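Summary for the steering committee. One of the milestones for this cycle was to obtain a three-dimensional model of the protein with cytidine-5'-triphosphate bound, which we needed before selecting residues for the alanine scan. The sequence and ligand used are listed below.
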Amino acid sequence: MLNGKKIILGVTGSIAAYKSASLVRLLVKQGATVKVIMTPLAKEFITPVTMATLSQNTVLSNFFNHDNGEWNSHVDLGIWADLMLIAPITANTIAKMANGICDNLLLTTYLSVRCPVVIAPAMDFDMFKHPATVKNIKTLQSYGNIVIEPSKGELASGLQGKGRMEEPEIILKKIIDFFDSKKKLKSKKIIVTAGPTYESIDPVRFVGNYSSGKMGYAIAEELANNGANVILISGPVSLSPINSNITKIDVKSAQEMYDASIKYFENADGAIMAAAVADFTPVSSTDNKLKRGKNNLNLELKPTKDIAGELGRNKKHNQFLVGFALETNNEIENAKQKIVSKNLDFIVLNSLKDKGSGFQFDTNKITIIDKNNKIEKFELKLKTQVAKDIVNKVQSLMFKV
Ligand code: CTP
């Protein structure tokens, strides 16, 4: 649920630092990449070796690595992170952050980060309710920092009261909820078609194409990572979806893909047609395997139904439709015609002339043309990155930003 999220976990000098070991484990288990920064005092409570092993990353603590003459760039870290979580955070670090003091790597990183900051305080009851701490926490909240309130209970001092750092499982849940609340496509239902279709000639042969399904699957993952419920209508490929928000419907022929697309489009918010649907299918397929003969074999083909075209005709005003065009010549003009003939909101054009584009590759170079003829050209990128560009365009369409 935190797949692909980059999190800085700051640890400060509190007895609750032992809980950050469980926390880092839980975050990593959820798919996050975690880089731990410890204050010098935190290392008195839990060892960097423990945190490095559990986070699968080197623990950062000092400005410099004197042995190899390198420095740890708080600026790079600040740009890298999707979230900075400081747990446990002491009254001392809270006070310094509230006043912009930056005399260790954790504090300089705090001042540099562009991402949201979440803090989970841990301290003695009297320290927590001291007006200075109350004021400092309010100051941090006024900067937009999110506070996970400590819970009540027995404290390390032996006193009872509010000051125990919240349990790692609860902190994890709050982090997941936080990222979920940012997901723009939450509860949207989106169809993606992917892969080739196989048009049967006889029980062992088919007419097909080289589509690997990689582009469609990458789009499905990106949509699901943004909170959408995805119906992935897939032709025969050797891929499986990862995100549990993706429901895969396996189909083989263009007719099966047509039937599934019509069925699910009815209640969907939109569809992205990334499949390489066969344009022709044999007029008839035999039940028995065709025997080899001495004469030529003529295979009569008839056109398949245009799935995108049919969805375009049925499209309601609150539904979107995105098509793909793989062209070899007259690319832009052909793509523009398809926007009109299939009633698309935009089309993703890839040209077979571009190196690294099209079937089987892990990369793609696309041009997006929308129904107002606005043209956006993109660089050659990994299909996972191309999927982000396409999903961003879908979001701007759905939310008119
Ligand atoms: N498409 C579809 N059903 C078909 C053929 C294509 O839904 N039977 C969709 C593709 O998934 C793609 C878009 O239509 O999103 C354009 O596909 P393309 O093969 O480029 O266009 P065609 O309409 O088949 O036209 P042509 O092959 O003649 O260029």
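Key point for the committee: The chain has a mean pLDDT of 93.
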